[in-house]
Amino acid sequence: MLTTTNETQWLQSGEASQHSEKNGSPTTLFVFGDSYVDTGNVKIDEPGSWKDPYGITFPGKPSGRFSDGRVLTDYIAKYLGLKSPAPYKFRRLMRHRLKYGINFAYAGTGVFSTMAKRPNMTTQIDFLEQLIKENVYTTSDLSKSVAYLSVCGNDYTYFMINDGSAEGFPPFIASMVNQTAINMHRIQSLGVGKVAVGGIHPLGCLPPVTGLYSYKECNKTLNDLIVRHNNALNEAVTKLNQQAKDHSTFFVFDLYGSFMSVLNHPSDYNIKEKFKACCDGLSMKYICGSMENNVKKYRVEIDSE
């Protein structure tokens, strides 16, 4: 996982902020968001993360992650020295893991409602608030906890699909950032010690977009809009910290910079086709994981972790 200085400070947020134990590390991780952090909340009978080839490099079988292996949640938890938090859906079956936190993220969701008929971020935060009311987590637990919010663009995809205009994009960005800041403040007001949000990665460089350009280049116009979102998000988080007591409660993960670092130096990461998907359907009719008459209708190009 690539981290910036601010990200490292958040991950190591320790005694200076009085939100840690003796070793200076948080003890509990709460996760909210989408498929970039979902570790199993989507229904098992739905297509995708509970079917092959997902999970082939970790844990060796489908586990509800929209990845061949680990997702960002797993890497953050590992960095903190914690077990990956239990998916909210399995909270009753995995009570022994609740001390490490809970993952409330649902793939396909956003800050607002999207095409995915699953709990959006506001509802996910409602779930945490209800657990606090049920005394699943004490004030002490919360003060030693951190939260991560993944906002990776599903709202913008939904906006564009629903005939979102170029003129409407700037005000929609403002709405997105404003609601994200409200969500971060709400989580902190529930007692969580530190709250971080991921900036959006370069959506214009994702395979569904680069495929329109024969996988040769990114869509600069879309990336410029995402940069605008990220700049506004940084300003909003700066304002939140100015209003916070210790001025270092809220953080932004620079996922855009991390993605571009890889895309600009693909050979450093043993990547040969930087704009192509590692798993894709054999034609426009199919997607990763598609089957027809028990025959795979997708191709996979994945190296081991």
In short, what is this structure?
With about 300 residues, the protein is an alpha/beta fold.
Task: Write the SSE topology.
Blueprint: H1 5-11, E1 28-32, H2 72-80, E2 86-87, E3 101-103, H3 121-133, H4 139-143, E4 145-149, H5 154-161, H6 169-189, E5 194-198, H7 207-210, H8 220-243, E6 250-253, H9 255-264, E7 279-281, E8 291-292, E9 295-296, E10 298-300
Parallel strand pairs: 1-3, 1-4, 2-3, 4-5, 5-6
Antiparallel strand pairs: 7-10, 8-9
Gross morphology is globular
Count of DSSP E strands?
10
Structural class: alpha/beta
Give helix % range: 25-40%
Number of helices, where a helix is a run of at least 4 consecutive DSSP H or I residues: 9
For the record, give the distance between the C-alpha atoms at the N and C termini, rounded to a whole number.
13 Å
* % residues in beta strands: 5-15%
The CATH class assignment is: Alpha Beta
Whole-number tally of structural domains: 1
The overall pLDDT average reads: 90
Low-confidence stretches: 1-5, 13-23
Let me know the CATH homologous superfamily.
Answer: SGNH hydrolase
Spatial extent as radius of gyration: 19 Å
And the CATH topology?
Rossmann fold
H/E topology pattern: HEHEEHHEHHEHHEHEEEE
Major pleated sheet: 6 strands, parallel
CATH architecture: 3-Layer(aba) Sandwich
Strand arrangement across the biggest beta sheet:
2-3-1-4-5-6
Account of the 3D structure:
With 305 residues, the chain is an alpha/beta fold. The chain has one domain: Rossmann fold (3-Layer(aba) Sandwich). Helices cover 33% and strands 11% of the residues. The protein has nine helices and ten strands. It has a six-stranded parallel sheet with strand order 2-3-1-4-5-6, with helices on both faces. Strands 7-10 form a two-stranded antiparallel ribbon. A two-stranded antiparallel ribbon has the order 8-9. α6 packs parallel to α8 (220-243). The longest helix is centred in the C-terminal third of the chain and has 24 residues, at 220-243. Mean pLDDT is 90; it is low at 1-5 and 13-23.
